Amino acid sequence: MLRLYFFISLMCLVKSDTDETCPSFTRLSFHSAVVGTGLNVKLMLYTRRNQTCAQVINSTVLGNLNVTKKTTFIVHGFRPTGSAPVWMEDLVQGLLYVEDMNVVVVDWNRGATTVIYNHASSKTRKVAGVLKKFIDQMLVQGASLDDIYMIGVSLGAHIAGFVGKMYNGQLGRITGLDPAGPLFNGRPPEERLDPGDAQFVDVIHSDIDALGYKEPLGNIDFYPNGGLDQPGCPKTILGGLRYFKCDHQRSVYLYLSSLRENCSITAYPCDSYRDYRNGKCVNCGIPQKESCPLLGYYADNWKEYLKQKDPPMTKAFFDTAKEEPYCIYHYFVDIITWNKNIRRGSMTIKLRDRAGNITESRINHEPAVFQKYHQVSLLARFNQDLDKVATISLVFSTGSVIGPKYKLRILRMKLRSLAHPERPQLCRYDLVLMENIETVFQPILCPKLLM
């Protein structure tokens, strides 16, 4: 049976390039973008029965759509070159992997493909109207608004919001992936995505200084790396097309990481990115029994907790690595010094396990202030999570390249994992760090009273 299913799926993939047996996302040329295209919305259904071979559906033909299951709509945004979104297939497959649901790709490329952004933006409400007509038919067939989930990318996020408004905020959930900023920034709630557009609205802001929307738009708004420059993206125009879209698209790839088993990105509710970086918000502001919110697909685990807030909204911050799956592992490094004079500077911390794996964290976003007998808790972010740390190294720097070399006299250093608080905490006592010189040592288990 499995072989038969594989053969049928393979035949669909082979045919998709030659006929419409397996419909594919509309692909247009840059010429189409220049001359413009009229709006034509195509809905393509994927289920676990037809994971690789889409079925075109509409408000009169629901096809294999099972109205008793969750239905997730994926709505793309502006397509200035006419190409298909490179992430679409991964998103469809990832959703079907984590849950048995209906996935509907909303292909409005004929309408989104134009070099004039205003033209694409002006069609968003018409796309929402098409989706409203389709969902109405789903409801007639027995579907529930509770089971409808919309994932909107850029302009698609506002389309999802317009659909939600048509149902008075009764849709189950909307996820906005870097909702478009241009033409929407500063607009009133009825003209953009809004927290009241669904029972739960979560938003990832990854490009707030360019193509994305800066202010909160959901019940929980995630700001990776503060919502600005994303690690691994080009910093100058020499990066070509990636320079313009990399930060904006990162929201999609971060969401995709939540559909995989090897990476769960934890975020920290906080008033500002600076407070998060300074370690002021790592307990989530709630009792320990409540876990911090997770980015992406499982963000709605915080739905019930947020309902208790007035208003039911929060901002959450986190950092990422520059490559997939983007996870960062947080540790606190608690340092008590006994210098007579105050020392200000940055700290680089390197961990090494018994197998020789090494991971490093530079804490240099702003100078730490070390005072005699005062504990400074530094939030360290590592690309790897080493279970058994064999050695730790520290480098202290004031940032000065000339003048006297300072010493930092450490009475006690303690390393504790935020992701795994059950792990033994590691300590070291009576260290003297010479500025800009790496000091390597073996930690010992902290006494129980210090944990």
From TrEMBL:
<feature type="binding site">
    <location>
        <position position="197"/>
    </location>
    <ligand>
        <name>Ca(2+)</name>
    </ligand>
</feature>
<dbReference type="GO" id="GO:0052689">
    <property type="term" value="F:carboxylic ester hydrolase activity"/>
</dbReference>
<feature type="binding site">
    <location>
        <position position="194"/>
    </location>
    <ligand>
        <name>Ca(2+)</name>
    </ligand>
</feature>
<keyword id="KW-1015">Disulfide bond</keyword>
<feature type="domain" description="Lipase">
    <location>
        <begin position="37"/>
        <end position="326"/>
    </location>
</feature>
<dbReference type="GO" id="GO:0016042">
    <property type="term" value="P:lipid catabolic process"/>
</dbReference>
<dbReference type="InterPro" id="IPR033906">
    <property type="entry name" value="Lipase_N"/>
</dbReference>
<dbReference type="InterPro" id="IPR000734">
    <property type="entry name" value="TAG_lipase"/>
</dbReference>
<dbReference type="InterPro" id="IPR029058">
    <property type="entry name" value="AB_hydrolase_fold"/>
</dbReference>
<dbReference type="InterPro" id="IPR016272">
    <property type="entry name" value="Lipase_LIPH"/>
</dbReference>
<dbReference type="Pfam" id="PF00151">
    <property type="entry name" value="Lipase"/>
</dbReference>
<keyword id="KW-0378">Hydrolase</keyword>
<protein>
    <submittedName>
        <fullName>Lipase member H</fullName>
    </submittedName>
</protein>
<dbReference type="GO" id="GO:0004620">
    <property type="term" value="F:phospholipase activity"/>
</dbReference>
<feature type="active site" description="Nucleophile">
    <location>
        <position position="154"/>
    </location>
</feature>
<comment type="similarity">
    <text>Belongs to the AB hydrolase superfamily. Lipase family.</text>
</comment>
<feature type="binding site">
    <location>
        <position position="192"/>
    </location>
    <ligand>
        <name>Ca(2+)</name>
    </ligand>
</feature>
<dbReference type="InterPro" id="IPR013818">
    <property type="entry name" value="Lipase"/>
</dbReference>
<dbReference type="GO" id="GO:0006654">
    <property type="term" value="P:phosphatidic acid biosynthetic process"/>
</dbReference>
<keyword id="KW-0325">Glycoprotein</keyword>
<dbReference type="GO" id="GO:0005615">
    <property type="term" value="C:extracellular space"/>
</dbReference>
<keyword id="KW-0442">Lipid degradation</keyword>
<keyword id="KW-0479">Metal-binding</keyword>
<dbReference type="GO" id="GO:0005886">
    <property type="term" value="C:plasma membrane"/>
</dbReference>
<dbReference type="GO" id="GO:0046872">
    <property type="term" value="F:metal ion binding"/>
</dbReference>
<feature type="active site" description="Charge relay system">
    <location>
        <position position="178"/>
    </location>
</feature>
<comment type="function">
    <text>Hydrolyzes specifically phosphatidic acid (PA) to produce 2-acyl lysophosphatidic acid (LPA; a potent bioactive lipid mediator) and fatty acid. Does not hydrolyze other phospholipids, like phosphatidylserine (PS), phosphatidylcholine (PC) and phosphatidylethanolamine (PE) or triacylglycerol (TG).</text>
</comment>
<keyword id="KW-0732">Signal</keyword>
<keyword id="KW-0106">Calcium</keyword>
<feature type="signal peptide">
    <location>
        <begin position="1"/>
        <end position="18"/>
    </location>
</feature>
<keyword id="KW-0443">Lipid metabolism</keyword>
<keyword id="KW-1003">Cell membrane</keyword>
<dbReference type="GO" id="GO:0008201">
    <property type="term" value="F:heparin binding"/>
</dbReference>
<feature type="active site" description="Charge relay system">
    <location>
        <position position="248"/>
    </location>
</feature>
<keyword id="KW-0964">Secreted</keyword>
<keyword id="KW-0472">Membrane</keyword>
